[in-house]
Specification:
The two termini are 27 Å apart. The chain has seven helices and 14 strands. Strands 1, 4, 5, 6, 8, 9, 10, 11, 12 and 13 form a ten-stranded mixed beta sheet that branches. A two-stranded antiparallel sheet has the order 2-3. It has one domain (2-234): Spore Coat Polysaccharide Biosynthesis Protein SpsA, Chain A (Alpha-Beta Complex). With 236 residues, it is an alpha/beta fold. Strand 4, helix 2 (57-66) and strand 5 (73-78) form a beta-alpha-beta unit. The chain is globular, with a radius of gyration of 17 Å.
Length: 236
């Protein structure tokens, strides 16, 4: 299995670090976020990884080369000309995948059991399986009782997108980790710069997009300076 790490973002929440560095190279207990996630993937036998770059791209490329991919084979998807967001970034890197793969944000840290998530994904023959928890956040995916994606909402702005209108929808906070069937590339109608949220909402009526709940595991969105401090207490 292969993976993609999304590392092209501007990391505005992580200022002032990102005024001079990419968020992927933010340090938690002596290791960058990128290194930690590459090593986390290695625990599950995933050693072929594509990383998209935009903001301070040269720093990421130089660090990967200097460290010889930390033992993995790292391919760069260059978005220096234009950042493409999560969906566009994945679409650009679609040539890299032949089988089910992992997609993840570089600025999250977790100890969830990825193998268990992959097994669930394959057993249910899902188009995509999304890691979620019960934590509080501003944006949620909405699922039905069968764990199928039905919509999305922002509880701060009250924006809501419901695709499958069902009673008793369950809200789950997305953790930025996906397991995806590569047939998604033939189903994507979006082009250019777009979000995976839009992709999933456009496909969930006719395809199985489910969740994997890992609320009982460690998880940290390392998006702000204070979260780096919290991550250092949680991840050695």
């Amino acid at each position: 299995m292969k993976a993609m790490i999304l590392a092209a973002g501007l990391g505005t929440r992580l200022k002032p670090w990102t005024d001079a560095h990419p968020k992927a190279l933010a340090i938690v207990n002596g290791k960058s976020l990128l290194q930690r996630n590459i090593e986390w993937l290695q625990q599950y036998g995933i050693r072929e990884v594509i990383v998209n770059v935009h903001h301070f791209a040269d720093q990421i490329i130089d660090t990967v080369e200097k460290n010889k991919g930390w033992g993995s084979t790292i391919t760069i998807s260059d978005e220096r000309d234009a950042i493409l967001e999560t969906g566009g970034g994945l679409q650009k890197a679609g040539w890299f995948f032949e089988d089910d793969f992992v997609l993840m944000n570089v600025d999250i840290l977790t100890d969830l059991d990825l193998q268990q998530m992959i097994v669930q994904h394959k057993q249910h023959k899902a188009l995509a399986t999304l890691a979620v928890t019960e934590r509080e956040t501003s944006r949620y995916f909405l699922f039905n009782a069968k764990h199928q994606l039905c919509g999305w909402k922002n509880v701060k702005t009250y924006e809501e997108k419901i695709v499958r209108h069902e009673n008793g929808l369950i809200q789950k906070a997305f953790s930025g980790i996906h397991v995806i069937d590569p047939k998604i590339f033939s189903l994507m109608k979006q082009e250019g710069k777009f979000s995976m949220v839009d992709v999933y909402l456009s496909l969930c009526s006719n395809n199985k997009i489910q969740y994997f709940d890992h609320s009982d595991t460690k998880f940290m969105d390392v998006g702000k300076p204070e979260s780096v401090v919290q991550a250092e207490m949680m991840f050695v």
